[in-house]
Amino acid sequence: MTALYVVYLLTFGLFVTNILASGSVWPGKWPAHAPESLEAIDVLDSGYPRGRGLRSTGRPCGPLTRELLAGVARNNTVLITAIDRLAWKSFGPSYVENIAAANITYWLVAALDPETSLTLGQLGVVNCFNAPKERLKYTGTDAMYHWGSHHWSQTTWNKVHVVRMVYELGFNIIHSDADVVWFRDPLPFFLSLLSGPAHIIISVDALSTHNNKGEVDVEYNSSPFTNINTGIYFIRQWPGGLAFFDEVWLPMQDKRIGHDQDGFNWVVRGGWFRQDIEPIAFIPPDTSLRVFYAAFSNTTAVAFLPSSMFGNTYTYVNARLWEVRSTGGCWGCWGLWKPYD
């Protein structure tokens, strides 16, 4: 485990060094704000407590409404990130500045607690809303944010609940974890796939791609044999979309099998994820479609984001797939976490 930790630190260190050296991703100043303590603040709307005044330094986020989404969306699409006060301290300020540097305008942060809501207001962030508290199954907290902890796991499910709330209002969604670095606007890529067969296009933990160099498309080898990563995904509007959330993915939270990513791999890959799962995903004979159908929802078509365009820290820094296989560079990249032990 020590060796793994050393590799993680070296890889992440190289990643940050490469990014900062480029001068094109994060602006020079990072907001040093951390969310205020709950005792010191109070915010209104979306089920949060009432009774005390708002700080004069800034207004918190408001409620989630169709009007808010419509005012931000481009081509009926929004980029959503859900974050609480613990994750904000690690990723929030850099994520917000990075989004601006990538010229992405159709983004919104869902504040999962009052502290994050007020902090966003203090920083002048208007692209935000309070996640409706009454619609979240988990409202707890913890002292620290650890990969694999109970709080971390349940917070990942909160992200799915938030995405479902936005989806029911009729928008296509690009979901992004807060540890994602966006190098360029992904919307043109996703819009080009709206008429394709895939309903969900999602990132993976693959270390290579079967796409040709310079090819701008979903992964040719989109199959249930690869581990899926819910750090980045695009879900378009289709008639079975809400049913996928309500009847397939979200019910896995109560089965306590792990975090949202475990749940997604379970219902989509089925027996290819774990041998004790009876249904398996269906792979159509026509591989040119570049999709497969979910094990527990055989009308839901899933495709993968190629690792040459949407990678992780390893494929960006070490394998450098964006240089070897892509002519347009990397579009988005997410961090690798050290497992909590």
UniProtKB/TrEMBL annotation:
InterPro entries to which the protein is assigned, alphabetical: Glycosyltransferase_77, Nucl-diP-sugar_transferase, Nucleotide-diphossugar_trans
Domain named Nucleotide-diphospho-sugar transferase: residues: 104-315
Organism superkingdom: Eukaryota
GO molecular function annotations of the record: arabinosyltransferase activity
Pfam families: Nucleotid_trans (PF03407)
EC number: 2.4.2.-
Coiled-coil ranges per UniProt: none
Name of the top EC class for this enzyme: transferase
Subcellular location, record wording: Golgi apparatus membrane
Membrane topology: Single-pass type II membrane protein
Keywords per UniProt: Cell wall biogenesis/degradation, Glycosyltransferase, Golgi apparatus, Signal-anchor, Transferase, Transmembrane
GO cellular component terms, semicolon-separated: Golgi membrane
Family the entry assigns: Belongs to the glycosyltransferase 77 family.
Protein name: Glycosyltransferase
Species per Swiss-Prot/TrEMBL record: Volvox africanus
